[in-house]
Amino acid sequence: CLACHPRGARLALARTDGAVEVYNFAANYFQEKVIPGHEARSVESLCWAAGDRLFGAGLGGDITEFDLSGLSAARGADGGGGPIWSMVANGTGSQLAIGCEDGSVKIFQVVPGGIQFERNLDRRKGRVLCLSWHPSDTHIAAGSIDFFRVIDVTSGQTVQRIMLNHHVEKAKRECVVWAIALLSGGTVVSADSFGRVQFWDWERATLAESHTVSTSAVLSLAVSEKEDSIVVGTSTGATYQLQLLPVRLGGQEKRWVRTKPFQFHSHDVRAVAHSPTALISGGLDAQLVIRPLMEKMQKKGYEAALRKFTFPHRRLVSCARKARLLLFQFSQYLELWRLGSTEETGKDGEVLPLCRMPEHLVQLKSKGPEHIYCSCVSPCGTWLGYSTASRFQLYRVRCDGDGVSLSKVPKVPKLLPPAYQLQFSADSDRLFVASARGSVHIFQLLEPGGCKHLHTLRPPSGCSEAVYLLAPSTDGHWLAAVSGDWAIHIYNLKCFKHHCVVPAYDCAVSALAIHPSTNNLVIAYSDQQLFEFSIPEKQYTSWSRALQSRGLPDDSTLLMNQSTLKQLPETARKRQLHAFKICKKFQPLLFMDLLDKNCLVVVERPIMDFKTQLPLPVQQKKFGT
Amino acid sequence: ISDQKPLGCWSVKHGQILTCPVVCNFETHEYIAVHDNKVLRIWKNEDLNLDKAFKATLSADVYRIHSLPHGGPVVLFKGGAVRTLDVLLEAPQQEIENVISAEVIRWSGAFMEGQEPVLIFTTKKGGDFFVYVQKPKLSSLHKYKLEQQESAKPLCFTAHITNQTVTLLCLYSNSSVYQVLIPLQQDTEEEEEVLSKSLLLNLSVSGDVLKGTSLVVLDKDHIAVLGSLPAPGKQPRECLTIWNTKFQTLQTSKELPLGTSGQLWCYEEKFFLIHGKVLTVIMYKCETSSLAAAVGKLKDSQTPDVSSFVNWNTLEDEELMVSFQSQESVALKVQSRMNLRSSRSTGAEETLPVGQLLLKLKDAPTYVLETELRKLMAKAPTPDLQATIGCVVTALIDRCKRSPKYYPQNFLQEIVETRDLSYSLCPDLMAIALEKKDMHLLQICLERFPDIPEEITYACLKAFLSMSEDHLQTIDINLDSAICYVDVEFNDKEVKTEILENGFGAEMDQDMCDTKIPKASQIDESCPVGLQKAALLNAVLHSAYTETFLLPHLKNLPAGQAILFLRYLYYLYVKCSEKVNTTLPGIRSPTINQIMDWMCLLLDAQFTVMVMLPEAKELLSNLHKFVRAQVRFYSELNKIEGSLRELQRLNHLRESQTYSIEVLEII
């Protein structure tokens, strides 16, 4: 499910495996926070309340508050009505209403440090699948199977009950109200499994308008803040926008008109959200799609481009450069592979014959219901670590001939988990563990298989957010750490002291690395800016300043990619050469790293590969099939 | 008709009779039927019941309704009056006059002449036959009497209109088909003009006479006749036959053992006939009438070999007919009787060895020589036929050398065109042709001989280039290779259409006199040489050569001619580049590679001349510009091609491998 922050700054998203992600609109829709899933947790509904607090409720029957700085599920409270199908916060964010399996609607008060049950509203038979507060908090609309009702919040009584399956030929089938919205004017918008979006005057119990947008179910619905636009998602993967438009140009009378159909998904569109400037949809095909509304855009450009988020914005693969191993992180297990090798050389574009095939060395299953937060393999390939919400594990990998043995390192120092990022030093001597409150723990790795806590680095001014990116320098002298507040702290590892802070830049850091020879820190921000910071001089390099004054090349610059350049005759090629080596031959890339000076490893993740693993979408008649 | 299911079926009430064939009005897609002579029914496909369909009762008996593709239905009454359906439906009970008196209509047909429907019908009264031509829209009526024929009477009629003339074909009871021409534009009001008829065809098959029952016209040279052949001691065999009227031959026949109704219809290259109890549909295709087809010698059209073309204009020659007749072969499956005007017996008894024969003929008179040589060549193919023909040609050329006035141009052309000769078989032929300035023969030789020495090729080129345009216009040359792209303004449109129809250069020299030759200086785009010269030069471009041997000769080409040739090559090059596939239209037109090779060769050979000559300057600069533009264009194409190939390569790679080590060069 999706939940837009009321002020439109952030988007919360929950996946079926219980993972919760937060996207920051201002930082170019950067996936800012990820709370990995949990086997026992399902999140059916997410909502922001009391400012920036995020609550989730699911079929487990609990309401969970998520700790966004510690990136964990913090507190839970039992809903007391069986599986919770929906949860919405009122306009002020002070109350949460939940719709339960037993047909009850319960109100919870959001209090500092948690939530408090307030009262039950009128209970009727039939699970409450969707809820919507009236903007003035006086009424709640609750959708069930075959009907929806409107409840007066003050009295707790049902004031109207409207059947949806009347006068429908399909009445023998049940009509599931999958989504509902109560507008300020007293109109109830319902979306049902018959593919209809209907507008009701609930006080008179009359149907004002009915739009059959799809032959299959309409699963989700979201209304813009101004209540002039609605987005609905259907089980065929199509989303539609409905807009409130004057019947005649300049006239007073307005009607809802279905304006734009979009087909971005291949499967059920389970959740939609309506930000002031974009339609957001997420579906069973695991994609988040953000479709900016052109009429709300000032100019054409990157802002107005359609975005599809398929991959997480964090590292799921780590590479042992020297040992030539790749560690793949899955939600509940890790896989270690040895790369294949070749003895041949060849010309550009040639595929070399392999003298050794890639080898799946080991699969390491994480125990318990928790999903893995992060993992890492050391450059020498002998150490391997991962962390879940409550445990941190370090293993010693021994390759003897064909066999591979893993032994757990005993007596790993007890620290407050989880670790958000693990990073080994270049000489595989030390392990850096990114932790909560801006701290980084340093472990000394000991032969033949032990480790001890060396030091904990903390920003001098303190920090509430967790560290999510680490970059040690190759010479082992420096460590850069980025925490959730986007501050980049640089520590001196020789004396374990805080060295300096990179000047604040108001955007999320998406990647950073320290140059092996110059020890300059290169930082990539999610707004597509690149900075180079000289660590010894504690200031941006002159190159970085020059770059900032000139700017990176924009869309109008013609940058030829490598394959085009290679087609050109020698003289023309020399003229067209540029600093950006663009190579478009790959499918979507999950990971890329340099093994050595001449060796690059890339991990492709073709979209088709995981599409084929998804269940079949609702059968659609396609021409020619 | 693969499954014979009715698509629609309508019936009249019991007791009513449909009295004439039902027709379809092509404009309204309605069917029109007449029952009980007077009652008109009009209905559409979706109407199920004929009884409820539109009904109109007329005041006179209907003979037939004819439906014309663009003219609407026309109704012919038994009294000979004609009305269009529109007029009739306005007042169904209108009075219908009687045109014929005591005559019975035997056949009728309708045609469109321009925008007007024309109706023709024949009537019989006693032993006399009459032909009526009516134009219902103009209310014009002409009556003709058919020329009497002793002891035979017409059985069946068919007609077609060409050029304002109705050609009426009549099948007579004496198994002959007669042709009657009736001019449409005739205003004479003479009473009962007698039409004379001419014999078109005798329906006799190897002595037996086909008793025809119906005939249809297939095209201008072919007719189909349904009839029966008498078989000794047996029932006559019914068969469908197709005849070539031009060559008086039976083209093909098909036996119909189950018997027919004697009727034959033909629509859109399909015959419809009732064979036994079923309606049979037979597809047919009429090849363009040619003698080769008529005698069953047509080669497989898959390999269009020029040698299979026969120049029809020489057919007047008796001798050629003889040679054909002597070839008349066992391969002729359908025994046909050719009405050849000459029936000279074949000289098959000649068995003398070739050398001796030639020696014997050395001093024989010209016509004897030619006749004997023809006989020699007409023999069935033997292993040494090529050598024999070589000897024949040599003999002819020897005689040419001895008597300067003798030059059997047509005979030589015929030999070169129809036989697979080569230069080495008759080394002096081209030299003598050059000497006699026989451009056409040289053209044919260049196109056909695979082994012309470069010296001769060069001599031909030089001769062609130096020949004046005016003179060339008077010579018969095959223009096929140039006619399709050289822009020539024709003063006479008629000429042009005729050329296209013939398809090959048949004595067009007279017609071409009107051709305006654009001067080279006029416009850049226009062809720098005339059509005839272009065709000759194309023959040179087509000939085989070796660069090293040709180059020394090309150096001797006079500067003016070199520039003219280069200009023509440049023109060809530009013409080629206009098309995406860089080919020129037409038969034997030069290919882009030939043009390029010759261009390089010429520039190589004449390099110093080109540099020095002021008039070459502009041409060379234009050529350079054009080539540069082309190079640029193709380098762009290269890029696209490279990208596409890359894509293909990638696709190919993706299919199999999940892990690969690839070389990636970063530039």
Automatic annotation (TrEMBL), chain A:
It comes from the Eukaryota. GO terms for molecular function: RNA binding. GO terms for cellular component: 90S preribosome; small-subunit processome; t-UTP complex. One of its GO terms (biological process) is maturation of SSU-rRNA from tricistronic rRNA transcript (SSU-rRNA, 5.8S rRNA, LSU-rRNA). This is UTP4 protein. The gene is Utp4.
TrEMBL record, chain B:
GO terms for cellular component: nucleolus. Pfam families: Nol11_C (PF20998), NOL11_N (PF08168). Residues 1-285 form the Nucleolar protein 11 N-terminal domain. Residues 368-665 form the Nucleolar protein 11 C-terminal domain. Signal peptide: none annotated. It is found in: Nucleus, Nucleolus. GO terms for biological process: maturation of SSU-rRNA. Keywords: Activator, Nucleus, rRNA processing, Transcription, Transcription regulation. GO terms for molecular function: RNA binding. PANTHER family: NUCLEOLAR PROTEIN 11. This is NOL11 protein. It comes from Dicaeum eximium. The gene is Nol11.
